[in-house]
Amino acid sequence: MHDARVLIEMGPEAVRRLARRGYSLDLSLLEDLQSRRNQSIHSIDDLRAESKRVASEVQATARAGGDIAALKETARKLKEQINDIEAELGGVQEELTTLLLSIPNLPDDRTPEGDSDEFATEVRRVGAQPAFSFSPKDHVDLGERTGILDFARATKLSGPRFAVTRGAGAALERALSTLFLDLHTRRHGYVEHSVPYLVSRKTMTGTGQLPKFEADLFKTGVAERDLFLIPTAEVPLTNLYADEVIPAAELPVAMTANTPCFRSEAGSYGRDTRGLIRQHQFTKVEIVRIVDPEHADSELDNMLGHAEACLKELELAYRVVMLAAGDTGFSAQLTYDIEVWFPSQNTYREISSVSSFGTFQARRANIRTRGADGKPKLVATLNGSGLPIGRTLAAVLEQHQQEDGSILLPQSLVPYLGFRRIAANGSPEE
Predict the structure, then answer these.
(1) Beta bridge partners of 255
(2) pLDDT digit string (tens) for 113-131?
(3) Active site residues
């Protein structure tokens, strides 16, 4: 969320920057709403001062034995005026808030021009793409032939875009989650959390999922209480500090959690319906950092390295790209995507987004710290996938497949699994 005063002060510069991501800022409307709000507040302050003066005059006149009828009528009319302007202010404030909540974050000027992944700028490639002496299978074929993935029975239970893992597949999911959590807590300094999977409308608004993306969310409730299933652990983790002032000495706050994530994928229009790439329910290890805004860039580099470390442990080939301004998420200023190599598709596919939000989420959720002068100031927030379990499992199957249909797993997983290979029949083998 933005400070209306800052956008108005930026003027055409704010319009230009938002246009880079395809958003047309109605600056005149924003200026009008802010002006009407300020005028109403000023009028209420003046009327309250006058009301206070009249009340004092009523008391003085009464003590002197004078007639206070006219003064009381004046006081009554002043109260009515205040109530009327307060009601008008409430309407203007609601309209202004609704507008501000709909305006995306200002993209960082470092982001390339463009509005799709075609315009992303490649930063680096890491790891050699595996060379096969055979035609590599995709993860669906591999999973179903070994029996460790079952999409048909998942569809019977819940409909399309769900999956069941079984045997060595379920063990591999658990191993991946534990490996990532161990990396982030033991090596990268994050504190593991267990958080609610159902959150309030206010919580979803704090990180920017609402009001814009309500169609992408699974919603439930009890009686008159609305609750949303989290699309990512970013939502509860970041909002743990909503409406709080974090002591500067406690920054950066580094948190991680392994949670299920729920997304309706309302805007995907049938893309990636096969396999584990785009599911309604999936598990993901998330990493979140709350930092001093002055350190946001270096903290973003740190977080990107933490996500990359997971792929390096799994001996997976990947690349890092910076997203174009028009393809950057609603709340983000700058986003790096990590794309892992999928041999069956002969391309890199997104497996992690690591984003800097500046103070955008902190303003919405009211998360602050104190500056050197002791005054409260907004923090900066960052988050990244570190990593999604389903997509990672798919990449492991595809990049580490063998000609006989087995999967030779990375050595880093052996301590968590107790075996190195998934045989062609799905049996674990040492």
Answers:
(1) 191, 288
(2) 999 999 999 999 999 999 9
(3) 263, 278, 350, 353, 391
